[in-house]
Amino acid sequence: MSIVTVQLGQCGNQIGHEVFNTICSDVRDTHGLCSKKENESYRDACKERFFCEEQSEVPVARAVLVDMEPKVISQTLSMAARSGYWKYDDGSHFCQKQGSGNNWANGYSVHGPRHKEVIMNLVQKEAEKCDRLGGFFTIMSMAGGTGSGLGAFVTQCLRDAFPTSFLLNHVIWPYSTGEVIVQNYNSVLTLSHLYKSADALLVHENDVVHKICAQLMNIKQISFRDINQVIAHQLGSVFQPTYTAEGGLHYSRNPLGDLMETLVPHPEFKMLGLRNIPQMPENSLAYSTFSWPGLIKHLRQMLIANAKMEEGIDWQVQPPRLGSSIPSNHSTNKPLHFNTSIANLVILRGKDMPSVDLGSFRDPSLYTSWLNPEDAFHSWKTLRAFNKYEKSASLVSNSQFLLKPLDNVVGKAWNMFASKAYIHQYTKFGIEEEDFLDSFTALEQVICSYTSL
């Protein structure tokens, strides 16, 4: 089944371009571990998901690009075409001359309704090109105006127009130090609206990815493109073809549906996090060796200690004992935060993969009590390596990983709201104080639900 990607705003378009670049680069690599037939099967499954082919035989991304300013879209179209390996459809983008000024209300209440028809027509045309539509993957930020405001509006339109299709939102969490003064307002409004429309939200935190670039990738002067490439690598590690059943003979045909079935057992819990291991500069790969037991051990500890990368993991955090709800540091008796999961998916790619023991992820103490551990953990696998990594593992988790950042954002936004700070910038575009209160209430419920795990 095919996925239509909807790239929204500057952030969404730049990340979307890197995602297609990563996927196309991975497909072009021929891995000796796999037979010619298996490499061809992998390539065909990938192309069906993300590309269609025109008479030129250059793969065309199944994507719609939307921004209220033309510069980024123009650059994105040009870079893709210059690669010579793939491109965007010349008619699948929409832009205007004026942005949303980092104002969520402007994107949601003004640009959204004004341009709804033309944007949804582009989406409809892209959907009709698919022999089998698997759903939509939107990419957007939370902090700005177009990506967040218009993105929330378009997501709502997608749900209305395609009620039976799967809808996954990829959301970029802003830097905690602040990108724009009203980013917490924009974030609260975005998340509360997406929670109503999307089947799941896959979140990347800018602070975390920045650390990965600095500490794992050894990048001295970190650019947005560096950050976007790390995000694209992680997304590709999830969305490239895998076998979803033991001993599978065919690659999964419905990636979004499989992801939702595996990780979202209840509509109250839609927040998904992503960890990938190993991650390092390409020029270091030739001098590095990895064992599956080591990778799995680190990935499991990253999960339970809520570590976002493999450096700096707190190895003292352990699952609670039977009859105990709060794990503690035995040397100090201080409580340690254990990251309780609802559901986890481990994706393994590379050599010697069939021998990997994933029993440690089936430990019932990792999970909430209301879901059977057999239903809470799944694994997808393929012998085909990904993006030049001989062995790699990814973890997509529905867990408490975002509780602290979410609570911080809601708290900061509420403090501003209580002081009536900048509210007039939203009310002039039709967003009333009641809309803010509804958004706060919705996210407080999300926080409460995840806390109760």
Automatic annotation (TrEMBL):
Cellular component, GO, one term: nucleus
GO biological process: cell projection organization; microtubule-based process
Keyword GTP-binding part of the UniProt annotation: yes
SMART domains: Tubulin
Keywords: Cell projection, Cilium biogenesis/degradation, Cytoplasm, Cytoskeleton, GTP-binding, Microtubule, Nucleotide-binding, Nucleus
Major place of residence: other
Cell compartments where the protein resides: Cell projection, Cilium; Cytoplasm, Cytoskeleton, Microtubule organizing center, Centrosome, Centriole; Nucleus
Residue intervals of the Tubulin/FtsZ GTPase domain: 47-247
Zinc keyword on record: no
A Pfam family per the record: Tubulin
Domain of life: Eukaryota
PROSITE patterns named in the record: TUBULIN
GO MF, one annotated term: structural constituent of cytoskeleton
Role this protein plays: Acts as a positive regulator of hedgehog signaling and regulates ciliary function.
Family according to the record: Belongs to the tubulin family.
Alphabetical list of PANTHER family matching this protein: TUBULIN
Protein name: Tubulin delta chain
Record organism: Eolophus roseicapilla (Galah cockatoo)
